[in-house]
Amino acid sequence: MNSGLVMYEEEFRLIAGICDRLTRDANAKVVFLVDKNGQLISSSGQAQNLDTTSLASLTAGNVAAMGGLAKLIGEKEFPNQFHEGERESLHMSIVGGRVVLVVIFDAKSSLGLVRLRVKKAGEELGKVFDGLAKKQTAPGAASPFAEITDDDIDNLFSE
Amino acid sequence: MSFINYSSREINCKIVYYGPGLCGKTTNLQYVYAKTNPDAKGKMISLATETERTLFFDFLPLSLGEIRGFKTRFHLYTVPGQVFYDASRKLILKGVDGVVFVADSQIERMEANLESVENLRVNLGEQGYDLDKIPYVVQYNKRDLPNVATVDELRRLINPRGVPEYQAVAPTGVGVFDTLKAVAKLVLTELKRGA
Questions:
Q1: What's domain A9-141's superfamily in CATH?
Q2: A65, B10, B74, B148: which has the highest count of C-beta atoms within 10 A?
Q3: How many angstroms separate the CA of residue A12 from the nearest CA in chain B?
Q4: Is B194 on the interface with A (CB under 8 A)?
């Protein structure tokens, strides 16, 4: 079976820092990072009033559907997508083939600026995720579940 | 594919409800949603047609509690059951940690059940998963209807391997949480084993 994604404190801080900077540099309202399977990794900006779990799941669904369409017309994927709303717009880009960087912005920013800043942030994030992948597959990497017992699992389901 | 976040101390897993059209996958999720404490659930999303048939997926995020300081969250998804939505079904299986097969117990739906189980096996295979290895449970739904096959017969056809199985009446909740708990437990056990 495919191994899951493991996020460590150190990389999480790096990622959060890159997302915060992108929010400022792109004049964005919200930036969030989602893994392609729909798990929210990080969010930055005015995300308090947003249902980020739903956003993450729908982002992944959208990227998966567009990826399916891309393959039908002979493309590998559509690495960047832009959806323009009346007031707010949404830019999605696939980073390192594994995660999706989503930027929500309004008239205070522009598509050009967002694209420019996303490109740089995407490169930085790509490096962090490469490092994370190496760390996860390195021999002797701490196995997060090793010390969990069957009783721990049973306790979760006993009401 | 599970996501373990040391920073927020969370474990996230993905469970997919699979089965033929109108077998009750969405109804399972609706019952779980209706009966779960508001603190433990997020919003349920249904991408459905105007006639309330699932078009892409239903999604329900659930929190189950903590294991050794890690919050365990499960993301429940359904696939669209209708045969012609196969491309969408494949996408939803990406990154799955556990599968529930919801079978329609009615005799006239037996062929649809078999076709769907086979389709599940093929689509999982395309994603690099093996139905015989992944955490997997079977639910025999619609047990309250008059024209149902016996459990023995259903087992022989749909569950020859004898994975955990539950009888259910999804609209009233019979067997719904038993099914969910069983698959969640298998997923966590698998995570522990693979750790």
A1: Dynein light chain 2a, cytoplasmic (3.30.450.30)
A2: B74
A3: 7
A4: yes
